[in-house]
Amino acid sequence: MVVHDDATCPFRGLAEELTQKLAIALQRIEALEKQAFGKKSEKMTPVSKALAQGESAEAAEAKREAGLAKRRARQALKEALRKQMIVHHVTEAQAACPACGDTANKPVGAGKSTTIYEYVPGYFVQQEHVQEKLACRCGGFIATADPPRKVALKGRYGPGFIAHLCVMKCADSIPLYRLAKQYERIGIPMTRQTLTDLFHAAAEKLTPLADRLLALIAQCPVVQADETPIKMQNPKRRGYVWTFVADDLIGYAFAPSRSGDTPVLVLGGSQGTLVVDAYTGYNRVTAVGGRDRAGCLAHVRRKFFDARGSAQVEADETLALILAVYRVEHEVKQRGLVRTDMHLDLRQTAGRDAMDALHAWLIAAQPRHGPKTPIGNAIGYALGQWPYLMRFLGDVRIPPDNNASERALRVVALGRKNFLFVGDEGHGEHLAVLYSLIATCEAHDIDPTAYLRDVLLRIDVTEPADFDDLLPHRWQQPDDWLA
Asked: How far is CA 23 from CA 15, 322, 367, 372, 437, in A?
């Protein structure tokens, strides 16, 4: 009988290979089960709660004040609701006094009040516009008043109506065919094709504004970008919606492929920093002479979270180290120091220490895991992105992750579930146009319906040189927009 020690055992390599294959298989099974039955959230203890642990009394008080301000804002919205008073009169039977047989007729106070929030079907109105005609006494001249201003010359639908349907689809992800059913229920003659024509006519009219918005984003020093697929009506084709975010400017672009052509089209020739994941499609704008590339710590975290099924202890250790990085950013936010010199100092000290601790753990753990195992793959990804992940430490304008652009794509993901596909490339471009303007409105707390209603009329009488005044972040709501 031949006895082998661990170093010379011929089955050792086979055992390690089978262990790696088993770990990969278990991860795939877990991923499939999660996709089919599980929650999509990556949170264990919510990050916000974990970050809040141990915060200072000043930070807790600031959070309490922020909560009060939010409740006051909600209360202000309630008070701004249209109010209607409905008086319920006492009937003769109710007024009959059981004690003396007389009738109660003396008011007691203002009466009992109950507040109910009710839905009154829309505020759509059928307007009848009459153009006055005046004849001259000579009989040779008749003056006619101007017709109502409309977005479509031959249409029966006003700018507010068109703005409403655009917001319903692009902000609330309601398919046009469902909107057509809703409109018909309240008495508005409507077909799905009519809604489609109105939607695309509005997008085509507003395309110059969305193009200008993307141009302004390209001029910003720090841009975040991401992309997501969307089906097209032709089952053999698939399009992509790209988003480019710079602070509170949000732009979208549609392309029939995931190639680097779209980043080049939007950001080509621009300077600054591009915050993205590891996708190579962005390489063409982060090459020599282009933008500096910054990585996304959230993508690293996601890979370790997905590896918890096969290596929970070590994955949780990594998640805790990543949380330490976010604790620094959380403290800065709580103290109101965002983008200040103190913010940079904290990143260069506590933030760098947290990143160094994470890097040391990755280097130490890498030899213990095969590169194809879930945890090994996560470690390899993090180390491969490390130079880019460190970029945020030297510039307070650069976020540690790409979450802003991922949040901007949530509305696209919801729309992908609800209206399933876009008809063709032109329709996808129109969708991106309205996504851009509506998302930027929401980023500036602007009612997108009021905005679209106004600019749909004003864009025809505005010189291209003045289009910047019609962009959401510079737009001023007219006093008579409800008129």
From this structure: 12, 23, 16, 9, 46
What single letter denotes the amino acid at residue 106?
K
Asked if residue 19 is part of any domain, the answer here is no
Residues 6 or more apart whose Cβ sits within 8 Å of residue 411: 170, 171, 173, 435, 439
The burial of 3, by beta-carbon neighbours within 10 Å (0-12 exposed, 13-18 middle, 19 or more buried), is given as exposed
Q: Is the residue at 212 inside a domain?
A: yes
Domain boundary among 401, 423, 442: 401
Identify the domain boundary among 354, 377, 401: 401
Write the DSSP assignment of 345-393 as a string of letters. Answer: HHIIIIIHHHHHHHHHHHHHHGGGS-TTSHHHHHHHHHHHTHHHHTGGG
Both tokens assigned to 8? 């010379």
**Domain-embedded: residue 181:** yes
Same domain, 161 and 238: yes
Give the range of the structural domain holding residue 362, as residue numbers without chain letter.
Answer: 296-401
Q: Does the structure show a pLDDT above 90 at 44?
A: no
Statement to judge: residues 305 and 381 lie in one domain: yes
Residue 466 sits in the same domain as residue 365? no
SS3 assignment for 398-458: CCCCCHHHHHHCHHHHHHHHHCCEECCHHHHHHHHHHHHHHHHHHHCCCCHHHHHHHHHHH
Number of domains in the chain: 2
* Cβ neighbours for 195, distance < 8 A, ≥ 6 positions apart: 165, 176, 179, 180, 183
Tokens of 251: 């732009």
Residues 331-368: tens digit of each pLDDT: 999 999 999 999 999 999 999 999 999 999 999 999 99
Confidence of residue 483 (pLDDT cuts 50, 70, 90): very low
Token code pair at residue 426:
């032109």
Counting Cα atoms < 13 Å in the Cβ hemisphere of 156 gives 11
Rounded Cα–Cα distance for residues 352 and 400 (Å): 12
Q: With 90 as the cut, is the pLDDT of residue 406 above it?
A: yes
Residue 275 maps to a domain: no
| Same domain for 248 and 214 | yes
User: Kind and range of the H or E element at 254?
Assistant: strand 249-255
Query: Do 331 and 390 fall within a single domain?
Result: yes
Residues 457 and 480 both lie in one domain = yes
pLDDT tens-digit map of 291-323: 999 999 999 999 999 999 888 999 999 999 999
